[in-house]
TrEMBL record:
InterPro entries: GAF, GAF-like_dom_sf, HATPase_C_sf, HATPase_dom, His_kinase_dom, HisK_dim/P_dom, HisK_dim/P_sf, PAC. This is histidine kinase. Residues 821-1097 form the Histidine kinase domain. Residues 103-173, 229-300 form the PAS domain. It comes from Funiculus sociatus GB2-A5. It holds the Pfam family PAS_9. The lineage of its organism: Bacteria, Bacillati, Cyanobacteriota, Cyanophyceae, Coleofasciculales. Coiled coil: none annotated. Its EC number is 2.7.13.3.
Length: 1098
């Protein structure tokens, strides 16, 4: 113990064990130990104790008493076992199991919530598990896929390949990724990307596979669109006169290069793509390129490298002028690095040659394309001026005017202020290359403000390297800059069009698609904001549907703009775009102060037209000028959005029209169809309305796919006539009309009438659009006319039947009213009598008590009183009077019960369906028939045995149901009364014995069964109740039983029945209550009527 607990032996001896316990030690276990010690019993418990250092441990303690020779406990021996590891292991196992269950539920929930298809298969490729995403992706419930192989959901031509892929999955050691095409339940192909892995048991045997499938159908469609756009861009880029290449921003590896770039670098496209600069160029050169690239990506701005020397793949040295700019993704993060480069090797060589010879300089300067070359000395005096654009640098085409004059003497002060710092820098040995900002009149003058010039200032050195002069070369790069801008704009607009196309093709509402388009325009063109309106043609109002950028709301004063109002309404009215790069001075901008405050520069508004039909307006504001390429690109975007709006509207209208036509076709009697006859004699049904199901008992799709299904149903005797009529209509192009017989798919014979008008198509096809109608009823009517006499007789019988039913119904109604009236009339006086009997009984008791008091106090009355008492027999009167009052009270109660039964039977106030107690209706009927059931002097009576079950309230027509009980019970009583003589005489004959003339003298024959009616009720399947009424009469033959419920059929003598009681009862149960009425009977076995009605009526 000292080892386990940290205490020495001396610290333990003499102490109570409580020093080992803590606050969380089980008190029940401690009490068990105390009880065992007190009672001298053995005990084993588990306690949580604490060591000397305060650490807990679990102790399994077992104590046993030690007794002396007399059986007395002298001390206890205890054994402690440290079971901490076992307890902790048990707790850990319990925690792990709980965690495992929670984890299993969590992952199962995640699987079911996943938008991807998650599945498992066995070794044969049959699905053993599929999550609920199968319904969204493939249109099948998971249960429909279980047990099927994945190839069952592939197109037939891909199933063999699919099975081979599955074998590869089973052979794979790690996960296997592949793409395939599955078939949706509606037959449409679905592109799915699968990631699969093999499932193995502990022995490494293959159990099956599991994996995830993602619907990539939309991305596949987007890939096709992007591929088309990519091909177009590649074609444009490959034909540019400048080199264009792109690198991935992440690793600076080449992702694209055009043909010009291939020629400049000296490497083929295959050699460049996927490589970085270190794979293509020397170390020092690659370091320079990489440093510049990273600077561009870090700063996110355009970097102009006027001169960079590279060693090409042909081992040539070339000098390039390169511009680099980052291309950003949707989040504004650099995704690619775009470089546009041109070779300036020749230009640099020209500059070198100019240092050697002024004449060479002049010769070259004369031939310098699209620019001018000037040399100047240390005083900024021109010593040489040549070129086609000398007026740019001196406002004069005459070189003699320039040569010999200083910069200040030949240009304006503004131009001198611009150029002088560069001249001095060149003379100081500093070379500069810069572009004059677009439309900078300080350099070009107002007459050349639309041009863009590249200016290169550099020092001119002699053979010793000394600076002898400076040189300025100017080159008109307007066209090149425009080409570059056009290229960038083209790239931007292609990306914009691709993203707009993607937004328009998504499964979304029109407003959601337009909002995505507006957001895409703002993101790609850096627009301040963009908005799209749709025309409400009924009100001639433009309604704002989408807004993105600095304004995202679609309410406010511009949410509804009438055509012709504001700039938006004017664009719609004139159906012409409105484009402006001078918004702040544009008279159409109603709030120019707002434009100045927000820094707006450009506006672009486009009418959304579809074949000259206005569907809306698209408008954007920009804080920078909008180039022509973007203006043209936006025009195509506007056309795409307009077409999408019209397409969406047309689709909705077509869907609505189609739904109406489908509804019309579905509700129209007969079948609407289109029949096609080709010039080669082939026939088909391009369309059949849903009436095909009722007419032919065929699905329209099945009949359209196989015309023979329809022709095989035509009656053989009418088939040739049908073919001839079609051929004649095709030949003459006259309306087709035909009547004939056909069999439905179930074998039912029908008469069909068809009518249509042929139309000859341009390709030689003939189309009949017409209607086929079932005229079987009409034909049947025509056939029936030939049997007019029989039909009239049948009609007469039906009228007689109906009349008798009406008479019977009126009788029952009159009887009900009579019974209810009698019950009411009797009820009032009976209530009066019954109420007065109570007081009469009280008064009588008071009088009798008073009389007894007289007798006590006047025991000897006068002779006259004694005589009168004897005359009226006072003692008998005192004894009989209370009995008489009690009998009157019982009689009145009996009358009340009869009245209640009469009212219950008539049910005049219960003509509608209502929940009632079935037993109450049966008892009321029995009470009314009590006189026929009770014993009489000439008959023993009929015993009624009730075997009632606990029934719920049943929804029914109470009065009509009571009529059924009355009809069946009366028939049972009639049958039993016929057999009463059998019970009395035991002769077996119906009625009284032939030799008996005094029925009252008859005595019961104990050998014949007593007449009885047994009534049983029960609940059947919790849905219906069954009432069985059985008698032990003579029964009936099969012939009688088969006609039992026929109208006018009766076995009773004339005058005792109409034969309508059971027929009406049958209609009440089957038609009114949706129940069952049937009879079981054999001769000599009595008859049992089975009444079954639902507990609740529909």
């Amino acid at each position: 113990m000292s080892v386990n607990q940290g205490y020495s032996l001396n610290e333990i001896i003499g102490r109570n064990c409580r020093f080992l316990q803590g606050a969380d030690t089980d008190p029940i276990a401690i009490q068990e130990v105390s009880t065992s010690i007190r009672e001298g019993n053995t005990c084993q418990v588990v306690l949580k104790n604490y060591r000397k250092d305060g650490t807990p441990f679990w102790n399994e303690l077992k104590i046993s008493p030690v007794r002396d020779t007399k059986g007395r406990v002298i001390h206890y021996i205890g054994a402690q076992t440290d079971i901490t590891e076992r307890v902790l292991a048990t707790e850990a196992r319990t925690t792990a199991q709980t965690t495992l269950k929670q984890s299993e539920k969590k992952y199962r929930d995640l699987v079911e919530m996943s938008q991807d298809l998650i599945w498992s298969t066995d070794q044969e490729g049959r699905f053993t598990f599929v999550n609920s995403a199968a319904k969204r992706i493939l249109g099948y419930e998971p249960e429909e896929m279980i047990g099927h192989t994945f190839t069952d959901f592939q197109p037939p031509e891909q199933q063999q390949q699919g099975w081979e892929v599955y074998q590869q999955i089973l052979a794979a050691q790690s996960y296997y990724q592949y793409e395939t095409v599955q078939l949706h339940s509606d037959g449409k192909p679905v592109h799915i990307s699968f990631n699969a892995i093999v499932l193995r048991d502990e022995a490494g045997l293959v159990l099956g596979t599991t994996g995830i499938g993602r619907d990539i159908t939309e991305s596949k469609r987007a890939e096709v669109a992007l591929l088309h756009s990519q091909r177009f861009l590649n074609s444009v880029l490959d034909n540019l006169p400048v080199g264009v290449c792109c690198k991935n921003a992440s690793d600076l590896r080449f992702a694209f290069c055009n043909k010009t770039c291939e020629e400049l670098l000296g490497f083929s496209r295959q050699d460049v793509l996927g490589k970085n600069d270190y794979d293509l160029f020397p170390q020092e050169q690659a370091d320079f390129f990489t440093t510049i690239d990273r600077e561009v990506l870090r700063n996110g701005k355009l970097v102009d490298i006027p001169e960079e020397q590279i060693q090409t793949g042909h081992q040539e040295l070339r000098i390039l002028h390169t511009r680099k700019i980052p291309l950003l993704d949707a989040q504004g993060t650099p995704e690619y690095l775009l470089a546009i480069t041109e070779e300036i090797t020749e230009r640099k060589q020209i500059e070198i040659q100019l240092r050697k010879s002024e004449e060479l300089y002049r010769t070259i300067a004369k031939n310098f394309p699209n620019g001018a070359v000037v040399l100047f000395d240390s005083d900024c005096r021109y010593t040489l001026a040549e070129g086609t654009d000398l007026e740019v640098v001196g406002c004069c085409k005459d070189k003699e005017f320039l040569e010999g004059k200083t910069l200040h003497e030949t240009v304006t002060p503004e131009t001198s202020e611009l150029l002088e710092p560069y001249f001095h820098a060149a003379l100081a040995g500093i070379e500069n290359v810069f572009e004059v900002p677009d439309r900078d009149s300080r350099f070009c003058g107002d007459s050349f403000a639309s041009r863009i010039y590249k200016v290169h200032t550099l020092p001119v050195r002699n053979e010793n390297g000394e600076i002898t002069a400076g040189m300025m070369m100017t080159q008109n790069i307007t066209e090149r800059k425009q080409a570059e801008e056009a290229l960038l704009a083209q790239l931007c607009m292609e990306a914009l069009r691709a993203n707009v196309h993607l937004a328009l093709t998504q499964k979304a509402t029109l407003q959601q698609s337009l909002q995505l388009c507006a957001e895409t325009i703002v993101r790609h063109l850096d627009a301040a904001f963009a908005r799209i309106w749709i025309l409400n043609s009924e009100e001639d109002v433009l309604e704002l549907q989408a807004s993105a950028g600095m304004y995202t709301h679609i309410d406010g004063p511009h949410s509804r703009v009438r055509v012709g109002e504001f700039k938006i309404g004017m664009i719609a009215q004139k159906r012409q775009p409105h484009l402006s790069n001078t918004v702040q001075d544009d008279p159409r901008i109603s709030d120019r102060e707002w434009a100045k405050r927000e820094g707006m520069v450009a506006f672009a508004g486009y009418p959304l037209l579809v074949e000259e039909k206005l569907v809306g307006v698209m408008a954007m504001f920009f804080i920078q000028p909008l180039c022509e390429a973007k203006q043209i690109g936006l025009f195509t975007v506007a056309n795409a959005i307009a077409l999408n709006i019209e397409h969406k509207r047309t689709t909705e209208a077509l869907s609505e029209t189609e739904a109406k036509l489908q509804k019309l076709a579905a509700n129209m009697p007969g079948m609407i169809y289109r029949f096609l006859l080709r010039p080669d004699g082939l026939i088909s049904f391009p369309y059949m309305s849903p009436g095909c199901r009722e007419l032919y008992e065929l699905e329209p799709e099945a009949a359209q796919n196989d015309v023979s299904l329809v022709y095989n149903l035509i009656h053989p005797d009418d088939l040739q006539e049908h073919k001839d009529s079609v051929a004649l209509s095709a030949q003459t192009l006259q309306p087709w009309y035909w009547e004939g017989r056909m069999y439905t798919a179930s074998g039912k014979l029908k008469w069909i009438q068809g009518a249509s008008r042929p139309e000859l198509q341009a390709n030689g096809d003939i189309i009949w659009d017409g209607l086929l109608m079932d005229i079987t009823e009409r034909k049947t009517a025509e056939e029936a006319l030939r049997y007019k006499t029989t039909q009239l007789e049948q009609t007469l019988k039906e009228l007689q039947h109906t009349q008798l039913q009406l008479v019977q119904s009126e009788k029952m109604s009159g009887l009900g009213q009579l019974v209810a009236g009698v019950a009411h009339e009797i009820n009032n006086p009976v209530n009066f009598i019954y109420g007065n009997l109570v007081h009469t009984e009280e008064y009588t008791q008071d009088l009798l008590y008073l009389l007894s008091l007289y007798q006590q106090h006047y025991p000897h009355p006068v002779p006259e009183i004694l005589e009168e008492a004897e005359t009226i027999d006072l003692d008998f009167l005192l004894e009989d009077l209370p009995k008489m009052l009690t009998s009157m009270k019982l009689g009145a109660e009996r009358i009340r019960e009869i009245v209640l039964s009469l009212r219950n039977f008539s049910r005049l106030d219960e003509a509608q369906v209502k929940p009632v107690d079935i037993h109450e209706g049966i008892d009321s009927t029995l009470l009314i028939l009590h006189n026929r059931l009770k014993a009489k002097p000439e008959s023993p009576g009929i015993q009624v045995i009730k075997e009632y079950s606990d029934l719920p309230l049943v929804e029914c027509y109470p009065g009509q149901l009571n009529q059924v009980f009355m009809n069946i019970l009366v028939n049972a009583i009639d049958a039993l009364e016929v057999g009463i003589a059998d019970w009395v005489l035991g002769t077996g004959d119906k009625g009284l014995g032939k030799n008996s003339s005094n029925p009252q003298s008859l005595i019961p024959n104990p050998q014949s069964p007593a007449p009885e009616i047994r009534i049983c009720t029960e609940v059947l399947n919790a849905q219906s109740v069954v009432i069985k009424i059985k008698d032990n009469g003579s029964g009936m033959t099969a012939n009688v039983r088969s006609r039992l419920f026929d109208p006018f059929f009766t076995t009773k003598t004339v005058g005792k029945g109409t034969g309508l009681g059971l027929s009406i009862s049958y209609q009440i149960i089957t038609q009114k209550h949706g129940g069952v009425l049937k009879c079981f009977s054999e001769p000599g076995q009595g008859a049992e009527f089975w009444i079954e009605i639902p507990i609740c009526q529909n």
